[in-house]
């Protein structure tokens, strides 16, 4: 029997992130992780880093199978 898979595309943005850099605004990015069991995680993708921004709108989308 064939396994049906749906491809999901995530568009990510954030509002009012807390600045964690000392002396400037943070440079956020988003990392998508999947629990692979046994306390381990696998990275499925990551966005670009947006410099000096507390409300980033990431241009790179992340895709995963659902």
TrEMBL record:
<dbReference type="GO" id="GO:0005544">
    <property type="term" value="F:calcium-dependent phospholipid binding"/>
</dbReference>
<protein>
    <submittedName>
        <fullName>Copine 1</fullName>
    </submittedName>
</protein>
<dbReference type="Pfam" id="PF00168">
    <property type="entry name" value="C2"/>
</dbReference>
<dbReference type="InterPro" id="IPR045052">
    <property type="entry name" value="Copine"/>
</dbReference>
<feature type="domain" description="C2">
    <location>
        <begin position="1"/>
        <end position="66"/>
    </location>
</feature>
<dbReference type="InterPro" id="IPR035892">
    <property type="entry name" value="C2_domain_sf"/>
</dbReference>
<dbReference type="InterPro" id="IPR000008">
    <property type="entry name" value="C2_dom"/>
</dbReference>
């Amino acid at each position: 029997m064939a396994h049906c898979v749906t491809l999901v595309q995530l568009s990510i943005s954030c509002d009012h992130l807390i600045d964690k850099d000392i002396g400037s605004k943070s440079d956020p990015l988003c990392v998508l992780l999947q629990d692979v069991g046994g306390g381990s995680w696998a990275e499925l993708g990551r966005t670009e880093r947006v410099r000096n921004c507390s409300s980033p709108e990431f241009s790179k989308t992340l895709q995963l199978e659902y």
